[in-house]
Design goal:
eight-stranded mixed β-sheet, PH-domain like, seven-stranded antiparallel β-sheet, 1133 residues
Length: 1133
Amino acid sequence: MWLKPEEVLLKNALRLWVTQRTSGYFILQRRRGHGDAGGRRLVGALDAVLDSNARVAPFRILLQVPGAPVYSAIACGELLNGSEVYWAIAIGATLEEINQHWEWLEQNLLHTLSVFDSKEDIVSFVKGKIKGLIAETTSSKLAELEEEPEKFREALVKFEARFNFPEAEKLITYYSCCCWKGKVPRQGWLYLSINHLCFYSFFLGKELKLIIPWVDVQKLERTSNVIMTDIIRITTPSKERDFSMFLNIDEAFRIMEQLADVTLRRLLDNEIFELDPGLQDPTQITKRDLEARAQNEFFRAFFRLPRKEMVHEVLDCSLWTPFSRCHTAGRMCASDSYICFTSKESGCCDVLIPLREVVSIEKMEDTSLLPNPVIISIRSKMAFQFIELKDRDSLVENLLQRLKQVNASNPVYYNSLKNKDTVLSFCTARCSLVVFGYLSLLLLSYSKERSFFLHSAFQKQGFKERVKESLWNDHFAEYGRTVCMFRTEKIRKLVAMGIPESLRGELWLLFSDAVTDLASHPGYYENLVEASMGKCCIATEEIERDLHRSLPEHPTFQSETGIAALRRVLTAYAHRNPKIGYCQSMNILTSVLLLYAKEEEAFWLLVAVCERMLPDYFNHRVIGAQVDQSAFEELIKERLPELAEHMKDLTTLSSISLSWFLTLFLSIMPLESAVNAVDCFFFDGIKAIFQLGLAVLEANAVELCNSKDDGQALMILSRFLDHVKNEESPLSPFKNHHTFFSDDQEPCAVTEVADLIRDSYEKFGDYSVDLIEQMRYRHRIRVLQSHEDTTKQNVLRVVIPDVSIVPEHLEELYDLFKREHLISCYWDLTSPVIERHDPSRAYAEQYRLDHQQFTNLYKLVSPWTCGEHTEVLAERMFRLLDENMDHLIEFKGLACCLDVMYNGEMNEKIKLLYRLHIPPALTEDERDSQSPLKNPLLSTSRPLVIGKQLKQMLKDLAKEKDAKMEKGLPKMSQREFIQFCKTLYSMFHEDPEENDLYQAIATVTTLLLQIGEVGQRSSSSGSGSGEFTDDLQGEAAASDQDAVFSDTVKTPWKDSQSSPVAKGDWTVSLEHILASLLTEQSLVNFFEKPLELKPKLENAKLSQYSLKTNGMSYPSRGEQVKVNSQQQTSLSS
């Protein structure tokens, strides 16, 4: 084990160690005499004399630094030559233990040490790494023993101090590892929290901080490079980061995948993702919760169970398998409503036992042959014997409690099955539907009754069909015929051959466990049909449009009877699950289900497919299907490398194969062949579609490699699939209306569907459910980020034509806009901010900011910074942009206002400022901001000299106003003008030309005040525009002039809307303000000087998190420079 570094002084007068293995830097040694009885006594006596601890570990590892005069020990602290103090780091009691340490050093350190320049750096790095491993090992043991996690508390304190996140940013776990910077590893600590991946290192006097939000992760993978054989690579939009030298890299990568998946789905895919009940509040997530969630997801995927099922016990055990006459080793998983078993040998034996089928759970006598046995009896007079169950008493008690709850939840079903004779007759019935007691009356007539959806061809079964039926009946007799049957490799082979037409519907119900849903919800479907019929919505309109496109060539759907049944099933499901509603391809799947099952059975089969077997496939963005398409691309690269090499862009194949996954090949294969693929899907789940798709591509690989374009590749695959036949099917062949080809084309070779399916199992059947789920984790990240990129590009495409900001800067601004939204999602859990991200909305409306978020971002990117007045200006800007009054701002509004600030002409900037100081931006109840002036700049004692040019300009403006009777911006009242002047003064603060600007604005303000006074007197006396300038040099009221920047001025404000000003009120127009400002060159220079957006964006990237974590306090310009200089030393994604 690794030891805490400590100084040890050892005697080495005698050579007590033998070298076992050596490498460039490390030496593994064995204690002399270990394994030799005589030598052991001598060495043991010497150890007792020479060492304070008589029990010296028999193995050690030494660090050998080339060029150094001695060897420094990292195992037991001795020297090979000499007698000095060295560091004891690790010991090994057995050869196996020391070899594990040696292998870890070889894989993680051996090839790394050569990058260091000095021996001191090598020793420092190794010591630091070993200390990290010791801390991580201690933390893991504490977690396992459920002791007080003191180490975790210490790590939490360091995490909070180093990264300064709010308390809501919960730390999940931490690991000692290295982050690679070029070819140099930086030893440090990796912190995984609910929203971020953080890394901290202080090595060789240099500090490194790294913060990567999970929502920025575009790719998470395990790979290798020239130096390291196993690293974790995290890809973000800006760069790649490599992490290695974990004590347990498997666990670290698994937790990273879980956190990335949970966070991305919570923040980017909230339209369909419903977290487990224990994870609704992200602040309650723990490492144990994540591990339990991963276990639950694997359990549900493997047995294809409802999402609500939660695993309670997972135990190693053995199950008696009568067909093999022995106990089969495996694992039992017990959940809310099921007891499941899977053998350790893949495909050997799987069992699914719904608790609704269980009659009793009993403990049997414990013997040497049958240790800790438990007998579970089911209603079909079968019993399952489990042995070697640890903690049997607790397990049985929990199972009985859950069994009681299940029976209590459906007393009608439970009471109807008390008659065991009736139960026995159910279990021998041909249809699995009637194994349930409450349908006992239907059993008597079921042997004569056939679903009216079955075509008459079903009755004309050939010899091969009868042989298949015989094989299945033999199998039922040996393995069972209920949902609790033993599922083995033998049944998989029977399914691959094709299920007989007479048994297909029954076995689909059993394999999908839809039969349990059917039994659990008596009357549910009829109530749904009654509630949904006659209601009109988007889903029902789409259903009506697609009804006659569902297998139109089949006689069943050429009559109103079949169409009506299809309408009822689809409408009932849309009513049951409005989040999905209706999706194209559901009509094709449902029509085939109706051919082999009754209407209610078809409904529950559809529920099983949409909600369990193909999760997230049927929704607005078909995320689940896209994830599997991305995983399919990975499988193509792995299993068909030549084809992948030829088709550089595999998205073409993905777009072609999308319909394979959505319709289970029903839309592109002849029906009699496609149903065989559906057979495999109901037995093996999505794995069957993956392997069948690979088999199709392999069969056409040569032609695809010779294809010249995507269109030719599509034709090759379509022709092949159209000629996949099923010669053994008793069905009459129906022409596939989806085919691209006519009958007059040259003949194509026919492929037997049974051969194609057999090849898929033989060549590509080695993929496990666990592997597919791991691929889904990885590719869900890629798919969700691809959607985010599409959203960004579409938003930018709309905004770019309307602004002058360069696209690169606009893209960075969008990232800041989105991040501001997400930061609120991270820590402001009480606000409905997450609900405002709706991926089903138009692209421009998917991300919107509220008032506080907009204010935070405005402070970071706006060039009009006015000190404390900035927040007031931001509030007015928000009200101005919020045209629909929903209190949310889209990205385009922000981009357009910033475009005016940075790239607009002077008149455009003044117009924007003017609009910020009239309604609706300025409201009646808005508190006047504090005056930035301690003493008024204006004085009535200073005469105002009006030149001839300005007089003429004012006359022209007045005449132009009289001539144009069109509506423009309303005039500004005196109160609004005072606020306008305050804003201008605040904008000039800390400007290099501050004094000149103050004098200029004082002059302009005095002029405009007198213009307003003259206009007011002129309006009151009814004088015309010609008399306007004649009285301009009259003396204005001193009280009004002195109050321009006074905090005590209270101007009457009667209406906050843009209504005409009453006759006789003090007003000034935009034209007056603009003309007055043009008279002062310093003001013109200020508004026309070029402004750079890039520095603001760079500063915002560094400061956005700081503002949030520091309580949203906005630093002054001087403080911003200080913040920037500090943050340049750290790394952020």
